[in-house]
């Protein structure tokens, strides 16, 4: 007994009874050894299940066990640098002679959720001197087991204590919701977010695919009809021609397919939402006759074409969707409840008859004795605010299934009068009103325990935490959505799974795991041996097209420009300097030394192009990211609104014919530029954005943008001159 507990203390990361991880894993050690993955050469997949799939999860495109195993091998290689690892199919399910990782399926009845029901997402991990066996209740269960192995490998320097874990999630729906309606996000961002979520065993990414900015009652009809409103799916189908006018900010079917497949490959189901009959300006801007005359962002359900139009939209896009549940929105409707309930029920039965899918809505009009009709109990409810409904009393006690999206965990990008700008993750450790302890998905109300059903209530589906873009596309860059959730996703995922990580255990674990999360580089990190990530100068003799990186990191570039006798590249508006990095996230310091001799594009001359941003030099120093131009205080958009003195930003215009240095610093909350042509006197100027607040006012906010590191100059750059050097430091 004493020896055993000494052993528990000795294993730094394994506390007796559980493995520390995010989520934590119930674990019993056996003996005092541990298995080191440094010797493992084979990953053995049980041939009985390698090429087939499950139908039990929430996706209709589930990977095979072999598919999951392949991704696991790639992840393990990336984390351990163990190139010799190979994937073997074993037809009789038996082990190879040498120690191996073996993946197989077991009995689903062995794994129970918080309500005591069988769950297909459970798994067992057996670790012994013969290797590691992962036995899943389903293929997805095996996948979650592989996440445990990866985390333990990272935390314990490649080894896992001998013993057994038997682990299963408490709730079937665990994840996040992103408002891609009021802000576009590129497919790769969404796919990388899925990789981040999956590492912590979240299984659902809900995408809110259509919405509009707040339709202020004082807007004229014309203003409402031109307000920012987007529908993000793009098709050439004639039935919905005109619904979406913004192809460059949309997902084509191929892109949406790639998003869904890539996320499913990591166990994450994309749950699509098309919003109506509220937040429906994208539909009303297409067919203005369908809007309520009193508020054009709401559909007039009694108009004979309304329900059939929304059905046409769903008929068009249902074949795109590979989830068993789809979301029809249905929140914040303020007109007739009878019409609303009819709308939801008609859509729900239409969707089921077209596709066999189930329907979800936001909690809006809970059932009441006075109503002539109620929402069908086949429709699941996503509760979001107690001023809309009481999820336990109104819905669960009436036998509706409810998903917990309580606004306790709401995030609004950049600014909100009501909600924080990053997920208040500590509430996941303290949000249980009964004991100020750990929060779980059955806790809708973090202040009043009486509003929460027992933990084992089977009508609680799980939890989804949303991020909203109330103030539109210019309020934030893509990566702001990630940074808002950086800590929130792991902290929430532990509780969504039903695990028991404590507040003081979280950060040390997160700090170790975070740098190694596979399948994503959301922070645009660039590995570097020292503080200089990249150093280019052009004073070597000859006209070589190769550009040596002097930092020692080997990020050599190349150029199509000639070298000058004065040690520079001759930029002619066509030739370019190519950099093999693409982008660098905060923090960084970038220094570009150059002379501009001629500008041919007075509004759009571009110094540098990158994966996430461009750096423009006209009309003044400007960053372009996600389709929005960001300038410093002295640039046009602010001055034009009479908010800032100074008019045009002469300081931010690079003087022609002078050799100058341009410095950019990205700190944690802002990117700044320091023009050195005035001797750096002016100091560092932050880039700003101007947010429109519901048509009532504006606010400024800092913006933080990745460094553009694909090329300097080249076609479309609109300027000529010389480039003397480019440096990138890994701090600011
Ligand atoms: C792992 O599975 C192999 C093959 O079925 C078996 O021989 C071995 O005993 C198992 N190891 C553990 C620790 O369960
Ligand atoms: C981690 O493991 C490697 C190889 O297995 C070993 O060389 C190294 O010393 C270990 N590091 C620590 C901190 O234990
Ligand atoms: C650990 O052992 C206890 C006591 O035998 C048992 O109740 C529990 O189910 C075991 N847990 C795991 C993960 O094997
Ligand atoms: C809704 O549509 C009906 C039928 O077209 C029409 O009579 C009614 O005036 C409309 N209501 C509003 C508020 O727009
Ligand atoms: C609607 O739900 C309420 C509350 O459960 C119930 O009292 C009422 O009878 C229902 N109405 C109809 C038409 O089913
Ligand atoms: C609920 O769904 C089931 C199965 O899909 C179906 O048989 C039933 O008619 C639906 N009920 C309602 C009220 O829509
Ligand atoms: C809820 O469902 C249970 C079991 O199906 C049933 O016994 C109960 O009467 C239902 N309650 C309500 C309010 O519909
Ligand atoms: C969360 O709680 C921990 C432990 O009390 C504390 O150190 C940390 O600063 C808190 N984080 C935030 C964002 O409040
Ligand atoms: C590089 O090429 C340019 C244009 O062909 C030429 O003018 C220049 O002298 C060359 N420089 C060197 C160092 O060879
Ligand atoms: C130049 O570098 C880019 C990456 O920055 C690379 O894609 C391209 O193939 C290189 N071109 C040549 C000719 O080496
Ligand atoms: C899409 O194109 C429009 C029109 O050129 C532009 O204003 C917008 O910024 C672009 N969107 C993105 C995300 O690049
Ligand atoms: C600005 O230049 C870039 C690069 O050539 C080009 O893609 C973009 O369309 C231009 N934008 C405008 C508004 O002219």
Characteristic terms for this protein:
732 residues; alpha/beta; Chitobiase, domain 2; Jelly Rolls; 17-stranded antiparallel β-sheet; nine-stranded mixed β-sheet; 15 helices; globular; binds 2-acetamido-2-deoxy-beta-D-glucopyranose; beta-N-acetylhexosaminidase activity; signal
Write the layout of secondary structure elements.
Elements (H helix, E strand, L loop, with lengths): L1 H9 L3 E2 L1 E3 L5 E12 L5 E5 L18 H16 L5 E5 L9 E6 L17 E6 L2 E6 L2 H17 L3 E9 L5 E7 L7 H13 L4 E5 L1 E3 L8 H6 L2 E3 L21 H12 L4 E8 L4 H6 L4 E2 L2 E5 L6 H12 L7 E5 L7 H19 L2 E5 L17 E4 L7 H5 L6 E3 L6 E2 L14 H4 L29 E9 L9 H8 L2 H10 L5 H11 L18 E6 L8 E2 L9 E3 L2 E2 L5 E3 L4 E9 L3 E12 L6 E4 L4 E3 L5 E4 L2 E5 L3 H5 L18 E8 L4 E5 L9 E9 L3 E6 L4 E7 L5 E11 L3
Parallel strand pairs: 4-5, 4-6, 6-8, 10-11, 10-22, 11-14, 14-17, 17-18, 18-19, 19-20, 20-22, 21-22
Antiparallel strand pairs: 1-2, 2-3, 3-9, 7-8, 7-9, 12-13, 15-16, 23-39, 24-25, 25-28, 26-27, 27-39, 28-38, 29-34, 29-39, 30-31, 30-38, 31-32, 32-33, 33-36, 34-35, 35-36, 36-37
Helix pairs in contact: 2-3, 4-6, 8-9
Keywords: Glycosidase, Hydrolase, Signal
Protein name: beta-N-acetylhexosaminidase
Catalytic activity: Hydrolysis of terminal non-reducing N-acetyl-D-hexosamine residues in N-acetyl-beta-D-hexosaminides
């Amino acid at each position: 007994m004493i020896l055993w507990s000494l052993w528990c203390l000795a294993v730094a990361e394994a506390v007796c009874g559980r493995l520390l991880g995010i989520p934590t894993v119930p674990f019993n050690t056996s003996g005092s050894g541990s298995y080191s993955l440094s010797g493992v050469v084979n990953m053995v997949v049980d041939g009985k299940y390698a090429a087939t799939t499950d139908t039990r999860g929430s996706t209709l495109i589930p990977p095979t066990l072999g598919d999951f195993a392949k991704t696991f091998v790639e992840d393990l290689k990336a984390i351990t640098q163990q190139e010799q690892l190979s994937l073997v199919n074993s037809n009789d399910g038996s082990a190879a002679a040498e120690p191996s990782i073996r993946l197989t399926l077991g009995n689903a009845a062995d794994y129970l959720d918080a309500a005591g029901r069988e769950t297909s997402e459970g798994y067992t991990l057996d670790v012994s001197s013969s290797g590691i066996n992962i036995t899943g209740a389903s293929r997805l269960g095996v996948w979650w087991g592989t996440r445990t192995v990866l985390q333990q490998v990272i935390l314990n320097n490649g080894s896992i204590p001998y013993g057994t874990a038997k682990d299963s999630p408490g709730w079937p729906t665990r994840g996040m919701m992103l408002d891609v309606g009021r802000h576009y996000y590129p497919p790769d961002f969404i796919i990388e977010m899925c990789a981040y979520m999956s590492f912590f065993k979240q299984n659902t990414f809900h995408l809110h695919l259509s919405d509009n900015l707040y339709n202020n009652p004082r807007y004229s009809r014309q203003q409402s009809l031109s307000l920012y409103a987007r529908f993000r799916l793009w098709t050439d189908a004639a039935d919905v021609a005109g619904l979406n006018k913004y192809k460059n900010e949309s997902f084509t079917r191929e892109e949406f397919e790639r998003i869904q497949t890539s996320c499913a490959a990591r166990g994450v189901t994309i749950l699509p939402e098309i919003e109506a009959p509220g937040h429906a300006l994208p539909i009303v801007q297409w067919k203005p006759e369908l809007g309520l005359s009193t508020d054009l962002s709401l559909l007039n359900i009694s108009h004979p074409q309304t329900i059939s139009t929304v059905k046409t939209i769903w008929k068009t896009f249902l074949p795109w969707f590979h989830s068993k549940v789809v979301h029809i929105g249905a929140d914040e409707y303020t007109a007739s409840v009878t019409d609303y309930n009819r709308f939801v029920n008609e859509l729900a039965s239409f969707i089921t008859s077209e596709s066999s899918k189930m329907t979800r809505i936001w909690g809006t009009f809970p059932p009441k004795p006075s109503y002539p009709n109620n929402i069908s109990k086949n429709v699941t409810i996503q509760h979001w605010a107690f001023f809309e409904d009481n999820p336990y009393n109104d819905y669960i006690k009436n036998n509706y299934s409810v998903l917990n999206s309580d606004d306790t965990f709401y995030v609004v990008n950049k600014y909100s009068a009501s909600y924080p700008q990053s997920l208040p993750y500590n509430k996941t450790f303290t949000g249980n009103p009964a004991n100020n302890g750990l929060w779980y998905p059955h806790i809708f109300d973090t202040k009043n325990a009486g509003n929460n059903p027992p933990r084992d209530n089977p009508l609680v589906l799980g939890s989804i935490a949303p991020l909203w873009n109330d103030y539109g596309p210019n309020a934030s860059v893509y990566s702001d959505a990630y940074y808002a959730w950086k800590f929130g996703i792991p902290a929430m995922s532990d509780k969504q799974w039903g695990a028991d990580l404590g507040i003081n255990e979280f950060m040390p674990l997160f700090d170790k795991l975070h740098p190694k999360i596979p399948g994503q580089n959301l922070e645009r990190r660039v590995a570097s041996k020292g503080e200089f990530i990249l150093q280019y100068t052009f004073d070597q003799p000859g006209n070589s097209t190769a550009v040596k990186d002097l930092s020692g990191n080997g990020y050599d570039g190349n150029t199509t420009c000639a070298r000058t006798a004065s040690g520079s590249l001759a930029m002619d508006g066509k030739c370019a300097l190519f950099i093999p990095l693409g982008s660098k996230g905060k923090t960084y310091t970038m220094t570009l030394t150059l002379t501009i001799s001629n500008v041919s594009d007075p509004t759009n001359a571009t110094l540098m192009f990158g994966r996430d941003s461009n750096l423009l030099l006209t009309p003044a120093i400007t960053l372009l990211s996600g389709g929005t131009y960001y300038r410093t205080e002295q640039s046009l958009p602010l001055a034009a609104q009479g908010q800032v003195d100074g008019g045009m930003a002469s300081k931010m215009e690079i003087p022609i014919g002078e050799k100058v240095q341009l410095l950019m610093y990205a700190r944690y909350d802002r990117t700044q530029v320091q023009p050195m042509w005035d001797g750096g006197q002016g100091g560092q100027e932050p880039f700003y954005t101007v947010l429109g607040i519901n048509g009532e006012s504006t606010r400024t906010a800092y913006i933080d943008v990745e460094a553009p590191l694909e090329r300097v100059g080249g076609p479309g750059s609109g300027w000529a001159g010389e480039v003397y050097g480019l440096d990138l430091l890994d701090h600011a």
